[in-house]
Amino acid sequence: MQILVTGGAGFIGSNLVDALVDEGHEVVVVDNLSSGKRENLNPAARFYELDICDPMLEEVFRKEKIDYVNHHAAQIDVRHSVADPVDDARANILGLLNLLENCRKYGVKGVVFASSGGVVYGEPTKLPAAEKFPKGPQSPYGVSKLTSEFYLAYYAGVMNLPYIALRYANVYGPRQDPHGEAGVVAIFGQKMLRGETPVIYGDGEQVRDYVYVGDVVRANLLALKRLQEGGISCGSGGCAINDFAYNIGTGEGTSVNRLFELLKEITGFTGEPEYGPERKGELRKIYLDVGKAKAELGWEPEVELREGLRRTVEYLAG
Ligand SMILES: NC(=O)c1ccc[n+]([C@@H]2O[C@H](COP(=O)([O-])OP(=O)(O)OC[C@H]3O[C@@H](n4cnc5c(N)ncnc54)[C@H](O)[C@@H]3O)[C@@H](O)[C@H]2O)c1
């Protein structure tokens, strides 16, 4: 089977490409290397250095016989999306549309989309947040992820293009980008290994759901399997965004203070954190209900936080 992974030179995308290659799939990668790295590229994958907004993307679909698309390319920096919402929408919305139009034209059988459970719900009034909870993105990045899900539901309902949206919690692990939603792990880990003091913004009691990249990769493989098995079709009223969306997290919340303590133990750092001013617009508390992914995809997180952090620190230490 031939799979196109957009963003396959990035953190999550490259870990996924490695797993797909190991499973014996033919993999094509499209990435503009804006945050991805050439050294992350799996040599067995065919690589196109290309922006997903580029009209030349059609050449990739013309040349390769793509069965499934796994869409990980995106502008991922929440603060950049606030500073330049047009640039965020260009990559995350127009890029998605360029991709979906090619999927439609070239008969792609299904799409897996990397959405974000960390941003689409806003500040939930009840925890853990389940897929059907009200949506309330609080940044242009969150709006672009949620908008993408609406476009996918439209293409599924009207154009018959099946999809699964995986709403990730805060993903951490080897090759992690410090600008991503779980950037704090890479930033703290790197600083502590150098003996430098990390800064905690606010009181450190902000709570997030940290999920290990290996578990996220497994969720993608199961989503692909589910698409292959078929049966993903919309009712006569079309698709709703929650129908084929799955939270991918651990179901557990961890505060920044707790994360600091765990990383301190693992790195052997001896100092205390420095506290800085609270960051405006930051959510207070979110973690995800992952029961739907367990029931319908057969997916559960397997790597416990301490072990995942240990593997990440080992990677950061080189
Ligand atoms: N890391 C997280 O915690 C997290 C959480 C929720 C959702 N996600 C989503 O998962 C996906 C992967 O995130 P990541 O953390 O691996 O980030 P990343 O920055 O490491 O990966 C994104 C990749 O996409 C490429 N890219 C960006 N814009 C592009 C464009 N216009 N054309 C072609 N390639 C482009 C980058 O070069 C990079 O290789 C993103 O869609 C992100 O929104 C990540």
How would you explain this protein's 3D organization?
With 318 residues, this protein is α/β, with parallel strands linked by helices. The protein folds into two domains: 2-170 and 211-248, 3-Layer(aba) Sandwich (Rossmann fold), CATH 3.40.50; 172-208 and 250-316, UDP-galactose 4-epimerase, domain 1. 40% of the residues lie in helices and 16% in strands. The protein is built from ten helices and 13 strands. The protein has a seven-stranded parallel β-sheet, with helices on both faces. Strand 5 (110-116), helix 5 and strand 6 (163-168) form a beta-alpha-beta unit. The longest helix is centred in the N-terminal third of the chain and has 21 residues, at 85-105. The model has no long low-confidence stretch (mean pLDDT 96). Nicotinamide-adenine-dinucleotide binds next to helix 1, strand 2, helix 4, strand 5 and strand 7. Residues 7, 9-13, 30-36, 51-53, 72-76, 91, 95, 114, 116, 118, 168, 170-171, 177, 180-182 line the site of nicotinamide-adenine-dinucleotide.
Précis, in short:
The protein is α/β, with parallel strands linked by helices and 318 residues long. It has 10 helices and 13 strands.
The shape, in one word, is globular
Helix content: 25-40%
Total helix count?
10
The fold-level CATH name of the largest domain is Rossmann fold
Q: Compute the gyration radius: what is it?
A: 19 Å
Q: Percent of residues in beta strands?
A: 15-25%
Number of strands: 13
Instruction: Give the overall pLDDT as a whole number.
Output: 96
The low-pLDDT segments are: none
User: How many structural domains?
Assistant: 2
Q: What sequence of helices (H) and strands (E) makes up the elements? A: EHEEHEHHEHEEHEEEHEEHEHH
Largest sheet: spatial strand order: 3-2-1-4-5-6-11
The CATH superfamily of the largest domain is known as NAD(P)-binding Rossmann-like Domain
Largest sheet: 7 strands, parallel
In CATH, the architecture of the largest domain is 3-Layer(aba) Sandwich
Distance between the termini: 34 Å
